[in-house]
Amino acid sequence: MYFEVTSRTPIRRILFALVLPVMAVGIISCATVERRVQVPVLKGMRVHIRPVRVLVGTQTRSKPLYLSSSGKVKVYSGDAKTILATITLERTPVSLNRRKSIVVGQTSWDLPAATAAVIIVPEKGGSIFVGDTRYPGCIALVKRGESVLAINYVAMEDYVAGVVSCEMPRRFCRPALETQAVAARTYALWTMSRTRLLVYDLRNTQASQVYRGLTRTYSFGRDAARKTAGVVMVYDWKFLPAFYSSTCGGHTAPASQLDSAPRIAPLSGVECIYCQASPRYRWVITITVSEVEEALAQAGYVSGKLKDIKVTSTVGGGWVDTVEIVGSDGNRRISGNAFRRLIGTGKFYSANFNIRKAEDKFVIRGRGFGHGVGMCQYGADGLGRRGRNFVEILGHYYPGAKVIKIY
After folding, report:
1. Nearest Cα to Cα of residue 148 among 140, 138, 158
2. Strands across the sheet with 306-315, in order?
3. Distance of alpha carbon 44 from its chain centroid, rounded?
4. CA nearest to 245, candidates 191, 183, 302, 332
5. Which residue, 64, 121, 184, 294, shows the most beta carbons closer than 10 Å to its own?
6. SS3 call for 366
7. CB neighbour list of residue 80: distance below 8 Å, 6 or more residues apart
8. Local mean pLDDT, 10-residue blocks, the chain (407 residues)
């Protein structure tokens, strides 16, 4: 655009001419970003989703557990029928007394073995802290052996908002965050369908999904949960086991890489060229032979001298299926994932690797971070930045699964 500036040109016209192109670009960009995503709605069926039960703390003899509250709380019996007390929690310890009854502060309740639990419900607008972490909903204290479990009963969408806030960084694009919300919700529902007779559904760690309650729930997580509320994935009309990990390194792993993953088409593994921004897209680590030998010896896989380690078989995308441990007392074979866990998943980033012995060290070159099954989180961000919406991203990583809105 040509705009001639003279000494008589009003300053407002100059500013307007300079700002107008930026405004136009902004309006076009926003229109693209906010395009509506069409998701089929499940009709003719009323769906009720019970609260998610998340294990958020464990009291043992060596590990104390403390509760606090932002106001008064009511303590109910485990069957939620009887109010046992109304109290205030101020870093109040939880324990078991000699009769193995649950003690909160100085108060205990002799409850039947069948309901050896209490439920702590905050007053309206209040919340409960387990340690330093604030949680929505209520907290159930359940006796298990010599321990007391703290279980957060939380509404599904509050849980999803918390998981998105912990499992993805704020800088990821909106479609990636929405993809994460659907995956987290679906994984929770799949797990809940298998844990109905247990006292909790999920842990608050990477063993399930990372969740830190209201303390780590941010606006970007709440937005992703709200915009995808009720949207899930199904396969063969069952909730999909929507596994995911940080970085696949070029190809997601088949379900055989996870003991808990069923061998189904949506988890068969797909090519992914979208996670190259990840710091773990490619990596190299060096470990001494003696360090590896010690780890294998403690697990009973080698008793003599460790001579070498060889990759003996791989599956789709180069993920290691088995490795051979060559020792002076004979050879053993274990899975690539088992080998990774023995060395330590904090530094051995994935089971997509090759290994070479160099004098007194092993040099391991790898791709990706995590187990690799299902959605690649960095890849989801890469696809979102290429203009894909959350339905399209889910379709890429879980081929054959259906995306529907159930409530």
Report:
1. 140
2. 306-315, 319-327, 330-335
3. 32
4. 183
5. 184
6. strand
7. 119
8. 36 36 35 69 86 97 94 93 94 90 87 77 96 98 94 98 98 98 98 94 97 98 98 97 98 95 97 98 97 95 94 97 95 96 96 97 98 98 98 98 97
